[in-house]
Amino acid sequence: xxxxxxxxxxxxxxxxxxxxxxxxxxxxxxxxxxxxxxxxxxxxxxxxxxxxxxxxxxxxxxxxxxxxxxxxxxxxxxxxxxxxxxxxxxxxxxxxxxxxxxxxxxxxxxxxxxxxxxxxxxxxxxxxxxxxxxxxxxxxxxxxxxxxxxxxxxxxxxxxxxxxxxxxxxxxxxxxxxxxxxxxxxxxxxxxxxxxxxxxxxxxxxxxxxxxxxxxxxxxxxxxxxxxxxxxxxxxxxxxxxxxxxxxxxxxxxxxxxxxxxxxxxxxxxxxxxxxxxxxxxxxxxxxxxxxxxxxxxxxxxxxxxxxxxxxxxxxxxx
Length: 319
What we know:
The chain is built from six helices and 17 strands. It is an alpha+beta fold. It folds into two domains: 4-177, CATH 3.40.33.10; 186-316, Immunoglobulin-like, CATH 2.60.40. A five-stranded mixed beta sheet has the order 6-10-15-13-14, with no helix packed on it. A four-stranded mixed beta sheet has the order 2-4-5-3, with helices on both faces. The protein has a four-stranded antiparallel beta sheet with strand order 12-11-16-17, with no helix packed on it. The longest helix is centred in the N-terminal third of the chain and has 17 residues, at 52-68. It is globular, with a radius of gyration of 19 Å. Mean pLDDT is 90; it is low at 7-24.
């Protein structure tokens, strides 16, 4: 399924944290990997390493997007000098093995994130989503390669990139991993976390995780501006029969949430999402959270043989 994170121009400035790029704010490959790994460490999964073939694939795709002034996972203009192949896995394979159909050794899964903003802003925005967070948070993902419009120009110069809208970063992050690896327990925000975002505009993510019955990959109600997605991952191979979440605000009142989880049928009070794997659970407050406020979360997950209980879980939103 095509996944895009698009920040509309009318909401492009301070409200989204997107900044105009300067020399000081340019994001290097090392910077990007560190930012992603900091988020992974905070959620309890191992760090990624960089692979040059992923950097190459991402750089060519960011150049393609900038030259076409579009945001897409697909490449359709075969006359574009930056065209490599239509699909992300083909482009990664070409960079790694020279053939669109031959995968790198040890790789069983490939993912791609595309975002409209630059560098650090893109990484933060991608994390504060549901579907775009998945490759960044999954423990079986092992490697990443980052690029944006600045990376493309550093590599290719400005040839063919004059059509790019400078307000957009055309960020591409390609990932590879091995889904045969065992999975542990992970969650975000972790207990004691600070500076957690207060909101997420789910209509900016495609597909919208809360699009309304029959319009997305689940039957959850339709929402627009909501609270930040909270996730829990447990190592189960069967659909949990119980998934319960209770979020309390700074005054102790219960905050309404929507719970999405992988697998079917859905647990009572939750919504099954076909884009999530079994054991992946997202808890989304139905309203934005208050700034500089501490929230308490309790989550219980049960399958036929195991129970996972997350208690005394407090986090504080950004000031």
